[in-house]
Design brief:
The protein is an alpha+beta fold. Helix content is 27%, strand content 33%. Helix 2 packs across helix 6 and helix 4 runs antiparallel to helix 5.
Amino acid sequence: MRYRCYGATISSEVPLGLQQGGDEPDVEVRRRSVAEPPGPARTLRLGTDGRLVRWKVNVAAATATFWFEDAGTFRVLSDERAIDVDQRGPEQQMVRYLLVTGLSAAFSAMGRLVLHGGAVVGPHGAVAVCGPSGRGKSTTVLGLSRAGFGVLHDDLTVLTPDFTAHPGPRHASVAPATAMCLGVQGTADDDGKVAVALPDAPPSRLGAVLMLDARGREPALRRLSPRDAAVRLGKEAGLWFLLTSAARRTRFDLLTRLAEELPCYSWSAPMGIEQAAAAAAGIVPELVSV
């Protein structure tokens, strides 16, 4: 089956639940036997109940191998533009890891810049909304959708070298209380969140980056210097140790260029879901209106 996601065609032997389509594949997902990587396990906190899952990663040359105790093992082979999957748990859980960790590693090796942040698109371009987990990215982008922005994704932004942002999976995941406050509906997933369907949104060149500060500070929009923006983006772009050395160098170069060429801002949203969404709708259109 072939899918179209993040501006790439993915040929997969594992059903990914994405929009179907595309021509020659950029990435191939194959079912293969993959050995669990060596080394100690880390812990990953998942879901609204905060359950812990053990996982491992090993990066050697052009191959990154991942193991998750609740799903199985997969490896990203950069030279082959392929992901080999050895599923030993629920398929749904494996797909979640593939769509975030697996594709992030694969796209980074392809020379694309992956940001830990959502992205919205308006009449004057796209805006990436970045920040650590729990900072309010999904709340912000879904709030902006009510103001007429299209949502490319709520958690990952994938940019081609010309800084064009492409649409990801057509759903966003938020806590039930957030969905209720924003007036959006969806279906419950296994992590206790609400999966909200997203309408189609076109790819668009990135016009600005909004980096979310911790809430509770006095709401203020501040433009960052290229140096400060590059440092901040580097810290919040994701786990660098998941990437091969070549992918790390490419990410560094692209982050530096992005910070120099595009305006980057830091912003602390006001407390309260409704208040934060309304405030974002008031400032984001101005970031790309000129």
